[in-house]
Amino acid sequence: MALRRVETTAAMISRSLNWLVERVIAVLMLALVLDVWLGVIDRYIFHWQLPGPRSLRAI
Questions:
Q1: With the CA atoms of 41, 56, 49 and 33 taken in that order, what torsion angle do they form, in degrees rounded to the nearest 10?
Q2: Cβ count near 36 (within 10 Å)
């Protein structure tokens, strides 16, 4: 009985952590794609010389 409760709680925590990690990774991937896209637009189309994309890559 107690083992079943621990198993259920562990499964619920696992699902919650999985949901959170998936969202964090999605946001990080979006930031990476936007950073690269902005760098390409900056360098080859508008020649803005923005410091942002280069400084983000240095992190």
A1: 0
A2: 13
Q: Report whether 50 contacts 38 (CB < 8 A).
A: yes
φ/ψ of 51, rounded to 5, equals -80, -15
Measured on CA atoms in the order 25, 30, 31, 35, is the torsion positive or negative? Answer: positive
Chunk the chain into consecutive blocks of 10 residues (it has 59) and report each block's average pLDDT, rounded to whole numbers.
Answer: 91 97 97 88 80 61
Q: How many C-beta atoms lie closer than 10 Å to residue 53's C-beta?
A: 19
Nearest to residue 13, comparing CAs of 24, 21, 2? 21
Contact 5, 13 (CB under 8 A): no
